[in-house]
Amino acid sequence: MFRRSLNILLILALTLGLFSTAFAQDGVDPNIPIVDVSSLALPDGSEVTGIAPELLEATGEIQVVVRLVDPPLASVVGTNAKQKGSSLKPNQQKGYLRMLDQKQQTLIDQIGSMNGKELSRVSKALNAVIVSVDASRLAEIAGLPNVASIRPVINYEVDLSETVPYIGAAAVQAAGVDVLLDDRGERPGVMFADLELVGIPHRITIGERGLKEGLVEYQARTDKESRNIPLNEIENFVKSALCTA
After folding, report:
1. How far apart are CA 121 and CA 119, in angstroms?
2. Fewer Cβ atoms within 10 Å of its own Cβ: the N or the C terminal residue of the chain?
3. How many domains, the chain?
4. Full residue range of the structural domain in which residue 98 is found
5. How confident is the model at residue 23 (pLDDT cuts 50, 70, 90)?
6. Does 148 lie in the same domain as 64?
């Protein structure tokens, strides 16, 4: 069978709990199974301080997440800030992010003096830097000002058979369609540009606003504009689009 590719983009960083809530509110077919990911939830009080126990016997070059003591932007603006309004004005948010960046840079410089290498940094949902460093330097890093905790970077691979049901694409895949989930957390424009370079012929974009209305956005590579498709109709729509392609 000739296999075509379908690119699924998650524009919003969603938990699957939000998925199930949105689907139920929007009247999607209740017979569609929702993957149970409750086992992934962190128990209350699970936040680690200091060096994570699994790192205590680590040796050689390792990758770690170093969390700083200042709260990330998401904590400062308040719960459900998009719906209820932020406690900080836009210019105050930018100022807070600049402050976090300055403290992160100071920490990166200190870790650099230990031959550590910066891999990434985050400040909105989590205030942390990700670095590669020799495990023998972890105690020194933990003792630096503003360091709250050090946890390992966990690399894992999940088979498509596990991830595809998360986005309701099992039936489409069973019909002989390759499904690609892009959940890198990049800006939409970056993801769209990448799929153009790869040559993905079909794109479904799932976003917060669309989910509230029970819609997803579909666009074929040859289409000039995207169109909104009801969530409970997207499976048949995609099958029809592939048959006529």
Report:
1. 7
2. N
3. 2
4. 50-152
5. very low
6. yes
Which helix (H) or strand (E) is 132 found in, with range?
Answer: strand 128-134
Predicted model pTM: 0.55
Q: What's the order of all strands across the beta sheet hosting 147-152?
A: 50-51, 147-152, 61-68, 128-134, 117-122
Clarify whether residues 54 and 145 are in a common domain.
Answer: yes
Q: Structure tokens of 109?
A: 């410089």
For residue 164, the SS3 value is helix
- Of 160, 133, 138, 158, nearest to 149 (Cα)? 138
Q: For the segment 209-218, what is each residue's pLDDT rounded down to a tens digit?
A: 777 788 888 8
* C-beta of residue 23 within 8 angstroms of C-beta of residue 31: no
Q: What is the pLDDT of residues 137-167, one digit of tens each?
A: 999 999 999 999 999 987 766 665 666 665 5
Could you count the other beta carbons within 10 Å of the beta carbon of residue 117? 12
